[in-house]
Structures are given as structure tokens and as C-alpha cells.
């Protein structure tokens, strides 16, 4: 008996198949490498194929049951092949040829020349299509009406609140206290529902709070910010202090000093002027900030930057609605946003006659809430949940819904 036969490993019988349908049995010792087994298989099914040394590397053996590609350097035993197992001999797919430089340049040129159609091109291409704008306007009529009317209501209520505060001899002092109270609550004022949605997605609470504050409590924008800054080393750095509030407080303090002078009509007028200046400063701070992603997306469609910003302002930073506004009749216009409601209308009269609204208009915090919601509609949820301003907003909404049904 030969020595190699005494010490040879167990001989396995494996069933080999090819993609062309050939089948046969291979008897192979368990200490045989996969590469050697592959050579034997190629000799059996493709005679003369081993003349090219690349033929072996261009094929692979796959274990049929586990769908595992067998490693050439390992033995049959190491790959845990058992007697009667089925192996599949497959030719590797050749990689696609690299594109020529001329083809790459032509493709890049084609992409650059391919621009989005402008409004005239869209109207020309869709001129023969049946109009469906009526159905779409009906679907969005109630929502758009509410948003538009709410803005008008807030504009007019701000004027009423300013007049009421100006008539109060302690108006400046009251406003200064309310503003200071808002500054103290700024760190704690977070939309709990939005925060819970982000934490349930797996984001850390402190990071989610920061993202919500940077994105006006918008869950969608905050989530995008969190994903974009996930690897940013400063993502957990605290937000810097807010200096505008200090400036407003100083303005309130200076106006309070003016009001603390000798009691006279001139002193009263001076206090009213100071209060008016504070209102103007607040309005300047509440500047609209368009969503930069939406601006880029709409400008890539061929629209001018100014009209894109106007569209986003009219539609509360909602990209799809802004796109419809740009392609439609563009109403309401940006100028309409600063117009108030008809003060003689039944709706406005019903709002002013409501006791909860009347009491709220004497609170400077309500005025701040109205100003904030005008320029940052996404903050409305915060004010609706606020114990002081929430009841006022609830009554306005109920009155609007009641009169809108009649």
C-alpha cells in the first residue's frame, strides 16, 4: 500500500453542475484545495481550457445550498463541503469596459445642455391638455383660505394690540417684563410632540432639541439637519446666547426710564413713541428666512431668486406649494401678506367681541406671539401650546371655523 493512500483524507463525492446544463460526479479528497477542484471541473467540461492560465480565475465554484462562493485557497474540508453536496461552476461576469474620454465629455455636455423648461415652455407643451386646475383649487381652497385669512387677522390684531398697549400707562414696563420672561423661557420652549418624534427615530434628545430650535420646530427640516451634521464634531456644541433679546430689553429699559419722568402729556407721548420703536425693532428681527434647499431646488427649475423667495414666503416655506404658486396665478401676492382683514367684517367683529381675545390683547406676550407667527408660521404650534397665548389662538380658530361653515 502506498504511503500517500494510507494518510490520504476522506474522499467525497460531489455533484457538479454548469450553467449550460452539464452534470457529473467528482470524487475528491477533503484536503484538496478549491482551486484544484476547479481545475478538474474545467478539464471535464471545457477541454483545452487550461491552456490559458486566466481561465481558472475567471470561474468560481458556488455551494448550491448555502449560495456561498468557495475561496480558491481553502480546502474542501475548510469550506465544510459534505458528501453528496451540489456545487455550481460559474463563469465570472466580465466587468463593463470603461467609457472613452470622448463619450464622457459628450455625456457631460448633454447634461449641461439639458435644462429645466421655463414657464412659457411648460404652458406651450400642456396647451392641449384638459384643465384640472379647478379640481386642485377646490382641494386646497379651505386650507389656503384659512392660512390667508389667519395672516390678515393677525395683522389687524397686532394693530389693535399696539393701540391697547399704548393706552396703558405701564405699557413699556409690561412689555419689558414680558420680553424678559420670553428670554428666560427660550431655552425651555420646545415643541414636545416634535421632540418626541425625533427621539423615537433614535436621535439623542439634546441634539434633537438643538436641531428643532435651528429649524423653527420643523420635524422634517430638523431631521435633515441631524442627518447632515451626524459626523460634525461640533454637532453637540451649545447654541450661542441670543443678543437681540438683550438689545430689546435695553430698548425697553430706556423707554421705561423715559416713562418714569414727570407725569405729563409730553412724557406719555414719548413713552408711546418708544413703544412704537420697540414694535418696529421686533418686526425687523422677525425677517422671513427661506429654506435654502427649497430655494436651490426651485431656482434649478429656471425661476429667479427673488420670485422663489416670494413664493416660499407666501407658502410658509412649503416647496411644493411654492412651485404651484410660481406656475399658477401667484395669488396671494407678497404684498397681500401685509394687508389686514376688513375691520367691519362679521369675522373680525366676532373675534374682537370674544372676552378671551380681549383679555389676551392686553398681554404684551400675545403681541409677540402674533409677530412671531407672521414671520415664522412654523412656530405656531409653540404658541398654541403656550398657557397664555394658546387660549387666544384657540378662540380665533373656533370663531373662524364656525363662521366659515355658515
UniProtKB/TrEMBL annotation:
Source organism superkingdom: Eukaryota
A Gene Ontology biological process term: protein ubiquitination
Signal peptide: none
Region (Disordered): 98-120, 232-272
Residue stretches of biased makeup (Low complexity): 243-265
Protein name per Swiss-Prot or TrEMBL: Ubiquitin-associated domain-containing protein 1
Subcellular location, principal: cytoplasm
Native organism taxonomy: Eukaryota, Metazoa, Chordata, Craniata, Vertebrata
Compartment(s): Cytoplasm
Keywords assigned: Cytoplasm, Repeat, Ubl conjugation pathway
CC terms in the record's Gene Ontology section: cytoplasm; ubiquitin ligase complex
A family per Pfam: UBL_UBAC1
Family annotation (InterPro entries): STI1_HS-bd, UBA, UBA-like_sf, UBA1_UBAC1, UBA2_UBAC1, UBAC1, Ubiquitin-like_dom, Ubiquitin-like_domsf
Domain UBA: 183-229, 289-329
Repeat is among the record's keywords: yes
Domain Ubiquitin-like, residue spans: 12-96
Basic and acidic residues biased stretches: 106-120
Keyword Chaperone: no
Pathway: Protein modification; protein ubiquitination
Amino acid at each position: 500500500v502506498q504511503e500517500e493512500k494510507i494518510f490520504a483524507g476522506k474522499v467525497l463525492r460531489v455533484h457538479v453542475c454548469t450553467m449550460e446544463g452539464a452534470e457529473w460526479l467528482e470524487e475528491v479528497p477533503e484536503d484538496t484545495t478549491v482551486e484544484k477542484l476547479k481545475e478538474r471541473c474545467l478539464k471535464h467540461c471545457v477541454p483545452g481550457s487550461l491552456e490559458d492560465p486566466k481561465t481558472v480565475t475567471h470561474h468560481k465554484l458556488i455551494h448550491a445550498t448555502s449560495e456561498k462562493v468557495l475561496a480558491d485557497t481553502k480546502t474542501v474540508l475548510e469550506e465544510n463541503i459534505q458528501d453528496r453536496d451540489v456545487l455550481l461552476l460559474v463563469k465570472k461576469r466580465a466587468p463593463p469596459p470603461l467609457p472613452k474620454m470622448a463619450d464622457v465629455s459628450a455625456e457631460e455636455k448633454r447634461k449641461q445642455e439639458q435644462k429645466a423648461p421655463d414657464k412659457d415652455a411648460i404652458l406651450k407643451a400642456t396647451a392641449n391638455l384638459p384643465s384640472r386646475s379647478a379640481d386642485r383649487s377646490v382641494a386646497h381652497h379651505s386650507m389656503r383660505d384659512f392660512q390667508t385669512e389667519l395672516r390678515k387677522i393677525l395683522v389687524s390684531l397686532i394693530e389693535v394690540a399696539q393701540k391697547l398697549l399704548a393706552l396703558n400707562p405701564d405699557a413699556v414696563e409690561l412689555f419689558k417684563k414680558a420680553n424678559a420672561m420670553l428670554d428666560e423661557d427660550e431655552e425651555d420652549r420646545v415643541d414636545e410632540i416634535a421632540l418626541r418624534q425625533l427621539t423615537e427615530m433614535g436621535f439623542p434628545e439634546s441634539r434633537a432639541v438643538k436641531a428643532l430650535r435651528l429649524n423653527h420646530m420643523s420635524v422634517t427640516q430638523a431631521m435633515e439637519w441631524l442627518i447632515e451634521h451626524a459626523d460634525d464634531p461640533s454637532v453637540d456644541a451649545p447654541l450661542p446666547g441670543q443678543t437681540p433679546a438683550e438689545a430689546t430689553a435695553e430698548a425697553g429699559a430706556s423707554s421705561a426710564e423715559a416713562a418714569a419722568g414727570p407725569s405729563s402729556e409730553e412724557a406719555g407721548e414719548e413713552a408711546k413713541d418708544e413703544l412704537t420703536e420697540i414694535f418696529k425693532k421686533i418686526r425687523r428681527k422677525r425677517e422671513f428666512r427661506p429654506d435654502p434647499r427649497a430655494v436651490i431646488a426651485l431656482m434649478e427649475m429656471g425661476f429667479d431668486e427673488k420670485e422663489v423667495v416670494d413664493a416660499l414666503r407666501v407658502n410658509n416655506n412649503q416647496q411644493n406649494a411654492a412651485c404651484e404658486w410660481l406656475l399658477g396665478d401667484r395669488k396671494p401676492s407678497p404684498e397681500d401678506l401685509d394687508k389686514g382683514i376688513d375691520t367691519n367684517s362679521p369675522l373680525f367683529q366676532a373675534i374682537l367681541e370674544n372676552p378671551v381675545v380681549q383679555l389676551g390683547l392686553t398681554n404684551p406676550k400675545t403681541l409677540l406671539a402674533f409677530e412671531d407667527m407672521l414671520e415664522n408660521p412654523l412656530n405656531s404650534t409653540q404658541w398654541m401650546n403656550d398657557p397664555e397665548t394658546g387660549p387666544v389662538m384657540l378662540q380665533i380658530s373656533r370663531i373662524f371655523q364656525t363662521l366659515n361653515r355658515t
